[in-house]
């Protein structure tokens, strides 16, 4: 969905869903599903410099391998899915 | 397909499973059936058999939980992560966990099995008609005891078939009192409770006492979720309260206002600003069967697949008539081999069928051609929807239906009889409000009908649309002589009189129309509201560009 216009965003009490930026979302997603080795590359700089993690994710999900955090990749990251990591460290 | 490192697999083919607990969303028999069908997906193509245990340790232990649920991988609230499972092995290996912050259904909205009544446990039929009014959820209307009920056929007035919907007044589940109903008020820790509570628990599940005093009797059970209940938020299990006030505005239906993620929510008291009690509105939910079939794939040794149509692809996608993909079959048969022996055959009638029930040879040896549905209520996605002459028209595969001014659905009609120049499958159509001319778009061409006279086909690039544009998917009339044409995530403004796109276009849909799906496959104006469609749903936007309603095309617009 596109973001509502001229809306006031509210912090809802008890909301388990965090308000995250796309970069934060990507960071968490790549870590959670095994694309970033949490022990080796814990910073965004680590994966953006190579973008290998994103390419790997795009390859696994059948997306165009741009290595960039593009709209299609963000969209895919927001889709409901299984919690088993795609890449095992 | 992929298997786990080391090709982890069960060393026996008679795999056992045990269901440790249930979700408040679905009745136990429906859940049991969903899991059994999910196992059957795999036993149909391998020599594996699955046997259910009711106690002790099974190979595959199945449970529902929320957030931190006892393993190192917490769940994340509604949506996002749905479930996970471990590859074969001892201990936690082989187990499958389902996130109970999701709304578990059979994938198409509330799956509500009734109790008592006269429908013998049949599933609720939504919508149903009662005393001339249409109901899309269980109701307490017509009763004085507060029990919610539903019809199990489309028309209660006619068929009189009904059953009671899950409610804590009818039964509990789990606990220690044989599913006895709640007793209200009950006393817990010296406090009086008038409704189910999560107090005293850390897992977020709602419970109640089944006697008047928990402190003395220690009898309790978990409360089933009503279909009208919200999920998540801070009022799980409570029903939406309409109308409610939010930021000093009144809302009569669920809304996405206030949220950046488009999710629909409601307040559970009449004033959110004061009480701050809220939850997410019920949606179609996730198919427990499909998610379980995927997780059981992991529990048998399959890792995620890169094939988008495979069951083992990591993303959830609802499929009505689920077929196991070739990739999944190859994967599981790599581990366990193909199914051996004959398939079970269905029982045959012992009596001789009468002559009219014996199938003719042609019926058994030839394939009957599939006839497109003539029932608008059976169509999941229309080619185009638009208002013509103040009547809403629905187009699909050469047919159209319309809602009369009296609100009655009529049709199907053949498009070829009224607009013979237009192909059977169109992408959009709109009526120019000034001239009453009809503009039909199909692929890269368009036609203009003035009464019975037609111009076209002409190429859409003649209007100034890009030559690489594949189709026009929606149209919104904006004032006299201007129409917005939508395609993909962009739109153009057409000057109808000049027959040319205005300068300054295309523009991004999400920058102008916030809060609607930016990949709508149909956009139209109806009764002064913008409607954006995605699958069977529509997002209604008012002139202030606020999404004030999200609803079902079939229920709300077609009155199915």
Task: Describe the overall structure.
- The complex is a heterodimer of chains A (about 90) and B (about 550).
- Chain A has about 90 residues and is mainly α.
- Helix content of chain A is about 40%, strand content about 0%.
- Chain A is built from four helices and one strand.
- Chain B is α+β, with helices and mostly antiparallel strands.
- Chain B is built from ten helices and 38 strands.
- In chain B, helix 1 packs across helix 5.
- The radius of gyration of chain B is 27 Å and the shape is globular.
- Strand 1 of chain A pairs parallel with strand 5 (about 80-85) of chain B, so a sheet runs across the interface.
Would you summarize the structure shown here?
The complex is a heterodimer of chains A (89) and B (560). Chain A is built from 4 helices and 1 strand; from the N terminus they run ααααβ.
Number of helices of chain A: 4
Radius of gyration of chain A: 14 Å
How far is the N terminus from the C terminus of chain B?
A: 42 Å
Inertia-based shape of chain A: globular
Sheet/helix structural class of chain B: alpha+beta
Q: How much is the radius of gyration of chain B in Å?
A: 27 Å
Question: Quick one: which chains have the greatest interface?
Answer: A-B, 32 and 58 residues
Helix share, percent of chain A: 25-40%
Q: How many E strands of chain A? A: 1
Q: What would you call the quaternary organization?
A: heterodimer
Please provide the count of β strands of chain B. Answer: 38
Low-confidence residue ranges of chain B: 349-372
């Amino acid at each position: 969905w596109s973001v509502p216009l001229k809306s006031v965003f509210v912090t809802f009490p008890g909301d388990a869903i965090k308000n995250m930026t796309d970069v934060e979302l990507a960071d968490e997603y790549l870590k959670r599903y095994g694309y970033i080795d949490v022990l080796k590359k814990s910073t965004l700089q680590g994966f953006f410099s190579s973008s290998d993690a994103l390419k790997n994710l795009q390859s696994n999900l059948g997306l165009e391998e741009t290595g960039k955090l593009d709209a299609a990749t963000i969209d895919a990251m927001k889709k409901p899915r299984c919690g088993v990591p795609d890449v095992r460290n | 397909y992929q298997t786990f490192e080391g090709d982890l697999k069960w060393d026996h083919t008679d795999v056992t499973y045990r269901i440790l607990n249930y979700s408040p969303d679905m009745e136990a028999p429906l859940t049991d059936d969903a899991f059994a069908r999910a196992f059957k997906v795999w036993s149909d193509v391998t020599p594996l058999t699955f046997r259910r245990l009711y106690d002790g340790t099974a190979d595959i232990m199945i449970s529902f939980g929320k957030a931190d649920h006892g393993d190192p991988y917490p769940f994340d609230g509604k949506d996002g992560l749905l479930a996970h499972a471990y590859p074969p092995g001892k201990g936690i290996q082989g187990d499958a966990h389902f996130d109970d912050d999701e709304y578990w259904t059979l994938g198409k909205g509330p799956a509500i099995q009734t109790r008592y009544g006269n429908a013998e446990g049949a599933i609720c039929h939504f919508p149903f008609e009662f005393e001339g009014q249409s109901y899309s959820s269980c109701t307490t209307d017509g009763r004085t005891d507060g029990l919610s009920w539903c019809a199990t056929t489309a028309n209660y007035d006619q068929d009189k078939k009904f059953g009671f919907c899950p409610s804590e007044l009818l039964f509990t589940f789990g606990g220690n009192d044989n599913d006895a109903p709640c007793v209200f008020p009950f006393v817990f820790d010296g406090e009086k409770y008038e409704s189910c509570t999560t107090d005293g628990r850390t897992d977020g599940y709602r419970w109640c006492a089944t006697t008047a005093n928990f402190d003395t009797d220690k009898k309790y059970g978990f409360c089933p979720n009503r279909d009208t209940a919200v999920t998540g938020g801070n009022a799980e299990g409570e029903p939406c309260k309409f109308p409610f006030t939010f930021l000093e505005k009144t809302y009569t239906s669920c809304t996405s206002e206030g949220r950046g993620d488009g999710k629909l929510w409601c307040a559970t008291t009449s004033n959110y600003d004061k009480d701050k009690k809220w939850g997410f509105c019920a949606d179609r939910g996730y198919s427990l069967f499909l998610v379980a079939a995927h997780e059981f794939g992991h529990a048998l040794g399959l890792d995620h697949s890169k094939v988008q149509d495979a069951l083992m692809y990591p993303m959830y996608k609802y499929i009505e008539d689920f077929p196991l993909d070739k990739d999944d079959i190859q994967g599981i048969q790599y581990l366990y081999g193909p199914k051996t022996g004959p398939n079970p055959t269905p029982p045959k009638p012992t009596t001789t069928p009468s002559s009219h029930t014996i199938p003719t040879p042609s019926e058994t040896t030839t394939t009957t051609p599939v006839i497109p549905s003539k029932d608008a209520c059976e169509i999941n996605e229309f080619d185009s929807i638009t208002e013509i002459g103040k009547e809403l028209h629905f187009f699909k595969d050469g047919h159209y239906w319309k809602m009369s001014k009296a609100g009655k659905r009529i049709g199907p009609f053949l498009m070829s009889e009224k607009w013979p120049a237009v192909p059977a499958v169109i992408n959009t159509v709109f009526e120019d409000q000034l001239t009453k001319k009809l503009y039909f778009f199909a692929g890269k061409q368009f036609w203009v009908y003035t009464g019975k006279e037609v111009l076209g086909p002409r190429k859409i690039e003649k209007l100034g649309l890009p030559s690489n544009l594949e189709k026009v998917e929606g149209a919104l009339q904006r004032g006299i002589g201007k129409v917005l044409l939508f395609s993909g995530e962009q739109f153009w403004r057409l000057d109808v009189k000049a027959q040319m796109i205005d300068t300054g276009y295309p523009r991004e849909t999400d920058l102008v129309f916030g809060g609607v799906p930016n990949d709508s496959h149909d956009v139209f104006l109806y009764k002064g509201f913008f409607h954006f469609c995605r699958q069977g749903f529509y997002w209604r936007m008012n002139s202030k560009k606020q999404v004030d309603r999200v609803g079902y095309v079939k229920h709300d617009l077609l009155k199915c």
